[in-house]
Design a protein that fits this description.
The chain is built from 13 helices and 27 strands. The chain has about 550 residues and is of the alpha/beta class. The mean pLDDT is about 95. It binds adenosine-5'-triphosphate (ATP) and magnesium ion.
Length: about 550
């Protein structure tokens, strides 16, 4: 693992810090489902721990009672496990530390480093100053320690209304860093908390709670995204002020968040898509949530590989989604069994094949891994409508009137007649097979340019196949516009009701991957029942990322 955070860890170890080993954490707020950006953070935090033979905690950062829910607590655990990481017995809730946070706040007051303020939220904002002007001190700033202790206790006891008082750190109203201008560290909110119920009326602010959570858990490296860079001075100030040893206490290191073209990575916006029913749910295969990616057919190995390849940077940039697609394509190319399916069927009658006869051909399941299955071959088959063209250009190497093509794993056929309905639509082709051309057969010595896939009409299984496109229309750089609802792609889901699949896939259950020859990678969807097959297209076969790479 080479990245700048690992470098920092090694520097710390060389300097004699963190002699008890490396300890990281993944700290989601349980206010939504995890998305692909979180996957990066999970891979990084658990990855750093594994690499350094350390440990990584799962911590629910649940200090904000209003938006959080147990539904999310459960889904987060499922997603991390699915990605392949293990927090063992170290699952923690920041809310379990509410008592400790309170004691630390009291300690700050005793050290003259925090005070109860009566200013309203609006006044605090006005007093804060701007980037160019210093802030103004609150009239409450010089309250005595005794008065502050008394007021803070009464805040806890519920003697004041929501918002009537706050506890603030006493640092420097003239600091060039606005986060150091006496930030609020506790507020009064009469809100029910999903984990602590109605025990608390006051709640710590994120910036106060997070460093303490890390310190309480003996975290060594607190990895977070770049927007917290300006908060680091407060992180350090707090731990300094409370006397935590600089050689063992946690340090915050920021890295660039993952942004992907064509993709939303904000829980708030993802929730809006679900709540306003623009998608079928959090696990809709078009969503960038981990459960959406899972349902879409992405594999844990592909997502981990992607997170490794994008690396860890110190400045923000947008990653091309084609790279994520490349990773899953590579994984499925190695691991998915090949089968034949026809999405847009055109009937073909093979007039020199006996009616009712079935020939079981053997077909390899994978070009490298071997393994075979039987594919029934009969007088009536279906091919892809696109694989026939009546007025075909010279370079069209599939089926045309009078032309020949090979049926994969079977025979070369010749198109003799094109049957049409009253409107002139092609309804059926009449072809003949060349019996000497059987794939792998002793007499198959004839080469031909085109090979197409097919299924037996009497054996094929009906299936619903869901084809996905990006959920959002983006500009030429793949950026999602601010008004993302207006940019929703009306064609992001196309349902093919009556696709036909070769019978070997009968009774496969959700989560099984296939390559449909020439069409792409597909996965069996959770909606599948023994009576009805439903597939999702994971990704097509064409690798645009490989192309991007070779052009650059
Ligand atoms: P969102 O912006 O979607 O609400 P968040 O940052 O509020 O996400 P948290 O639950 O606080 O969500 O995130 C847990 C961890 O995941 C944090 O350490 C956060 O820095 C990290 N994280 C969140 N989004 C990304 C991202 N796009 N790329 C990398 N890490 C991320
Ligand atoms: Mg957050």
């Amino acid at each position: 693992m080479v990245n700048f955070i690992q470098q920092e860890i090694e520097n710390d170890l060389k300097a004699g810090k963190y002699t008890d080993g490396i300890h990281t954490r993944f700290p989601p707020e349980p206010n939504g489902y995890l998305h692909v950006g979180h996957a990066k953070s999970i891979c990084l935090n658990f990855g750093l721990a594994l690499y350094n033979k350390g440990i990584c905690n799962l911590r629910f950062d649940d200090t904000n009672p209003t938006k959080e829910d147990v539904e999310y607590v459960d889904s987060i655990q499922e997603d991390i496990k699915w990605l392949g990481f293990d927090w063992e017995d170290r699952k923690f809730y920041a809310s379990d530390y509410f008592g400790k946070f309170y004691e630390y706040a009291v300690e700050l007051i005793k050290r003259g480093l925090a005070y109860v303020d009566d200013l309203s939220a609006e006044e605090i904002r006005q007093y804060r100053g701007t980037l160019t002007e210093p802030g103004k001190e609150s009239p409450c700033r010089n309250r005595s320690v005794e008065e502050n202790l008394n007021l803070f206790e009464r805040m806890k006891a519920g003697e004041f209304a929501d918002g009537e008082k706050v506890l603030r750190a006493k640092i420097d109203m003239a600091s060039p860093n606005i986060n150091m201008r006496d930030p609020v560290i506790y507020r009064i909110t009469r809100a029910h908390h999903h984990h602590t119920g109605d025990d608390w009326l006051i709640y710590p602010m994120y910036d106060f709670a997070h460093p303490l959570e890390d310190a309480i858990e003996n975290i060594t490296h607190s990895v977070c995204t770049l927007e917290f860079e300006d908060h680091r001075p407060f992180y350090d100030w707090l731990l300094d002020s409370l006397g935590f040893d600089v050689n063992s206490r946690p340090r915050q290191i920021e890295f660039a968040r993952l942004d992907l073209t064509n993709t939303i990575t904000s829980k708030r916006k993802l929730r809006q898509l679900v709540e306003e029913k623009f998608v079928r749910g959090w696990d809709d295969p078009r969503m960038s949530t981990i459960c959406g990616l899972r349902r879409r057919g992405y594999t844990p190995a592909a997502i981990r590989d992607f997170c490794e390849r994008i690396g860890v940077a110190k400045s923000n940039s947008v990653v091309d989604i084609a790279m994520l697609e490349h990773c899953v394509r590579e994984d499925l190319n190695e691991n998915a069994a090949r089968v034949m399916a026809v999405l847009n069927p055109l009937k073909v009658v093979l007039t020199n094949v006996e009616e009712g006869a079935v020939e079981f051909l053997t077909a390899e399941n994978h070009p490298k891994r071997g393994g075979c299955r039987y594919v029934p071959f009969t007088r009536e088959i279906f091919i892809e409508r696109d694989d026939f063209m009546e007025d075909a250009p010279k370079k069209f190497f599939r089926l045309k009137p009078g032309g020949e093509v090979r049926l994969k794993h079977a025979y070369i056929i010749k198109c003799n007649d094109v049957i049409k309905d009253a409107e002139g639509n092609v309804t059926e082709l009449h072809c003949t097979i060349d019996p000497t051309s059987k794939s792998g057969g002793a007499t198959a010595n004839r080469k031909i340019k085109g090979t197409i896939h097919w299924v037996s009409a009497s054996h094929a299984l009906k299936a619903e196949v869901r084809l996905y496109d990006y959920l959002l229309k983006t500009d030429e750089n793949g950026n999602v516009p601010e008004d993302f609802i207006a940019a929703l792609n009306p064609n992001s889901l196309i349902v093919v009701e009556n696709a036909l699949i070769e019978p070997s896939v009968k009774w496969t259950a959700a989560g099984t991957h296939y390559q449909f020859l020439r069409l792409g990678y597909f996965v069996v969807d959770y909606d599948t029942t023994p009576e009805k097959l439903v597939f999702n297209r994971v990704v097509g076969l064409k690798d645009t990322w490989a192309k991007v790479k070779s052009n650059s």
